[in-house]
Design the sequence.
């Protein structure tokens, strides 16, 4: 009976989750929301995390109805992500680990998403599409590594959506991507956008600058409504994501696809991926906002798996890193 | 000597009839028959053909263009001629790929000659000897073909036929 | 005497254990390489001693301020979830 | 002629059949229901045209590839030569690795480098280079590489695009054939010999793209 606590703060969400052998006991989270038209900066995000960390930790313990003594291992996000926010979160994790005299596990953020997705959905060996504000990767497990088969060559899909949301001055609450999704539902007229798939990689920066330049003019001239543009943007970038995922599935002969990461909550992306999967007699697994979006439980889950095969870190090794490739981690816990 | 009648791969109800005549004395008259509509067929210049398959690919494409309403010339038989030629210019294509009055042989292609009537009419008209269509390989002028299709030596080293059919299939896509 | 700008902090803790915990937490993350700031920590009895050296005053100030933010967080964490058992 | 489904790849369905007596492959890019109809139509047409153009351009540049028999935009089908007794370079590499046949692995790497060098010196960008998109005919010395799957190809002389082409192959190659870094270097070295004028810039770009991958700050 192992209980793990996970600290996540690599981007604008501060989450602390507690897991007991695959059961999520608690998973409170607080999101740093910036005014419409603005992105979140590292310094302000870190300040937000420092201000909320202890309250969220308190809530996590209370909701889970456990005391620090019962916790077996403290897990934290080592990277990738924003420097100051990562460190602010790690500071709390390191301090409580010493206070409670518990071992620490340094977790790769992307692997947290994958392990949480597998736990929640029961997917055995899925091809994983990890899509968020900072990441776009198609990942498949092979020979002790989560290998990156395809990824973005420039900006992440979430970043592309967020930056277009700023052009339209959409609200960042709960997230710019969510508001694009709602607006897109009313879109009708399709605008063809640059579609850039190169092998199993994708590129969004050309598409983003294309639509950033044209949107104001097209809207002013009344040719396209913001809803049309949101719909066209989603249709094009999601089609690119589904295509590289299908290529990876074909390449690895995989019959399971799992979407993780904040953008994975997008119902339209899920529908498109499901249609692709069904055409290949494959199965789509998707998680809802509780686990798709950055949260502490996912770090606890990955950390639990690592802890069970002895992958703890000495305290002085628990530094944070902004760049931490998914395929750098030895996945000892899978056969 | 039977001509070759082939069912169209994509349109089962359509056929392609191929026939080769050598030692022909009256090419002019045959072309006249097509001009005045006595019978409808593609009268092709044998020196420009390396293999019956080259004509089949051109003919198959002509039938397809006709079905989807994308023909560049007025009928399926003139379309075969046009498809064979790498040039976008119709009259230039006819000149280079249509049999010339002074030619000694002709390669005939007929679409949908259901009853064999057209072939019969052609056989009655031609003053020459009908031979197996594969004999056209002996009549190909490879140098001229190489010049007109702009074949590279690399292509020739593998297979002139593949080079030609690839051009024929891709012609309308290459130059837009 | 180096021409660097120097700052030394002596932070007293109620016990040596708490000073060690603060040291354990705050000594892990290094100063950014390009920042041009050198920082060293050590614990003497129940005092955490922090030494900063920087070529420019500005980078020194940024480093010290940032360190203080994290230090405050450690103190709050100990206060709320300590004292050490 | 009856069509037998051999594979449902990401691109579409692949059938084996005969085209007026010639063994052929029919590649049907059927409608992808997940795509917006307008996007699907435009992508499919673009890719069929790209494939046709590349098959001709490669052939003219001395790069072996299947002959093209028919392009049927309306029914989303391309019919091309079925290359007989050939295997994918992916399977061939695996067999050689299993047999630990270093000599032939080396000559294979050189052959791949040669083909890619000629491809890029003729400004043809493949767009989806993987060992599954290369066939090999024959064995050892007298084997020949045949490139296929040109749906994402285009023509461009820009070093960056050639760099991305090689980067895509590198990532696919190393993830499909673990610990073959040295072999891939042979491919790159031979590539340089066969793309003399452009190689230097392309290698610089490839290194930049690799760094971009490692350097990319992945926030969140």
Sequence:
């Amino acid at each position: 009976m192992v209980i793990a606590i996970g600290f996540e703060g690599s981007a604008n969400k501060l989450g602390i989750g507690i897991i007991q052998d695959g059961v999520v006991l608690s998973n409170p989270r607080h999101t740093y929301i910036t005014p419409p038209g603005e992105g979140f900066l590292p310094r302000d995000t870190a300040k937000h995390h420092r201000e909320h960390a202890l309250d969220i930790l308190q809530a996590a313990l209370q909701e889970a109805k456990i005391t620090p003594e019962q916790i077996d291992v403290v897990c934290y996000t080592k990277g990738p992500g924003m420097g100051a926010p990562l460190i602010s979160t790690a500071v709390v994790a390191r301090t409580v680990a010493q206070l409670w005299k518990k071992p620490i596990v340094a977790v790769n953020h992307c692997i947290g998403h994958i392990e949480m997705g597998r736990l929640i959905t029961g997917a055995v060996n899925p091809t994983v599409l990890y899509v968020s504000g900072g990441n776009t990767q198609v990942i498949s497990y092979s020979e002790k590594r989560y290998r990156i088969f395809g990824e973005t060559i420039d900006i992440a899909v979430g970043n592309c959506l967020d930056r277009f949301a700023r052009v339209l001055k959409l609200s960042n609450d709960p997230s710019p991507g969510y508001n694009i999704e709602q607006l897109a539902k009313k879109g009708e007229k399709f605008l063809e956008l640059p579609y850039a798939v190169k092998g199993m990689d994708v590129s969004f920066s050309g598409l983003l600058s294309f639509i950033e330049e044209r949107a104001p003019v097209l809207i002013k001239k009344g040719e396209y409504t913001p809803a049309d543009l949101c719909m066209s943007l989603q249709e094009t970038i999601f089609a690119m994501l589904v295509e590289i995922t299908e290529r990876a599935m074909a390449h690895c002969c995989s019959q399971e696809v799992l979407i993780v990461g904040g953008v994975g909550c997008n119902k339209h992306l899920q529908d498109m991926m499901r249609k692709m999967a069904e055409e290949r007699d494959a199965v789509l697994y998707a998680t809802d906002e509780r686990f798709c979006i950055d949260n502490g439980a996912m770090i606890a889950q990955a950390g639990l798996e690592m802890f069970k095969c002895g992958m703890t870190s000495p305290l002085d090794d628990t530094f944070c890193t902004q760049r931490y490739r998914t395929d750098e981690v030895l996945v000892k816990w899978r056969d | 000597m039977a001509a070759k009648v082939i069912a169209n791969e994509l349109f089962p109800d359509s056929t392609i009839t191929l026939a080769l005549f050598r030692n022909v004395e009256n090419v002019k008259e045959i072309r006249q028959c097509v001009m005045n509509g006595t019978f409808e067929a593609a009268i092709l210049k044998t020196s420009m053909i390396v293999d019956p398959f080259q004509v089949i690919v051109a003919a198959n494409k002509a039938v397809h263009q006709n079905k989807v309403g994308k023909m560049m010339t007025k009928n399926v038989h003139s379309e075969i001629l046009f498809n064979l030629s790498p040039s976008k210019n119709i009259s230039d294509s006819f000149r280079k790929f249509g049999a010339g009055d002074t030619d000694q042989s002709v390669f005939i292609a007929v679409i949908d000659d259901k009853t064999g009537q057209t072939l019969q009419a052609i056989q009655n008209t031609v003053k020459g000897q009908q031979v197996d269509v594969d004999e056209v390989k002996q009549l190909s002028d490879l140098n001229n073909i190489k010049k007109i299709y702009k074949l590279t030596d690399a292509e020739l080293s593998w297979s002139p036929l593949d080079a030609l059919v690839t051009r024929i299939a891709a012609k309308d896509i290459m130059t837009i | 005497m180096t021409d660097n700008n120097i700052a030394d902090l002596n932070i007293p803790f109620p016990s040596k254990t708490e000073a060690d915990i603060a040291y354990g937490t705050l000594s892990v993350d290094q100063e950014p390489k390009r920042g041009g700031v050198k920082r060293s920590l050590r614990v003497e009895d129940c005092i955490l001693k922090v030494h900063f050296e920087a070529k420019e005053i500005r980078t020194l100030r940024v480093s010290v301020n940032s360190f203080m933010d994290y230090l405050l967080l450690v103190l709050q964490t100990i206060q709320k979830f300590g004292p050490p058992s | 002629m009856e069509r037998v489904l051999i594979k449902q790849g990401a691109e579409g369905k692949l059938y084996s059949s005969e085209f007026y007596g010639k063994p052929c492959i029919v590649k049907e890019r059927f409608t992808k229901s997940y795509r917006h109809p307008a996007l699907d139509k435009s992508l499919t047409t673009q890719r069929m045209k790209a494939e046709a153009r590349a098959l001709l351009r490669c052939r003219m540049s001395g790069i072996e590839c299947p002959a093209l028999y028919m392009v049927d935009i309306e029914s989303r089908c391309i019919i091309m030569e079925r290359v007989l007794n050939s295997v994918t370079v992916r399977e061939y590499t695996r067999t050689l690795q299993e047999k630990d046949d270093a000599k032939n692995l080396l000559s294979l790497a050189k052959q791949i480098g040669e083909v890619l060098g000629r491809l890029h010196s003729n400004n043809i960008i493949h767009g989806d280079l993987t060992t599954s998109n290369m066939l090999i005919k024959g064995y050892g010395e007298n084997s020949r590489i045949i490139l296929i799957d040109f749906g994402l190809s285009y023509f461009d002389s820009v070093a960056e695009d050639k760099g991305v082409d090689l980067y895509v192959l590198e990532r696919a190659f190393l993830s499909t054939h673990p610990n073959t870094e040295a072999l891939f270097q042979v491919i790159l070295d031979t590539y340089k010999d066969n793309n003399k004028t452009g190689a230097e810039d392309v290698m610089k770009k490839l290194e930049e793209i690799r760094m971009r991958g490692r350097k990319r700050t992945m926030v969140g």
Q: What stands out?
A: Chain A touches chain C at residues 46-47, 50, 53-54, 57-58, 68-69, 83-84, 87-88, 90-92, 94-96, 98-101, 315-320 (CB under 8 Å).
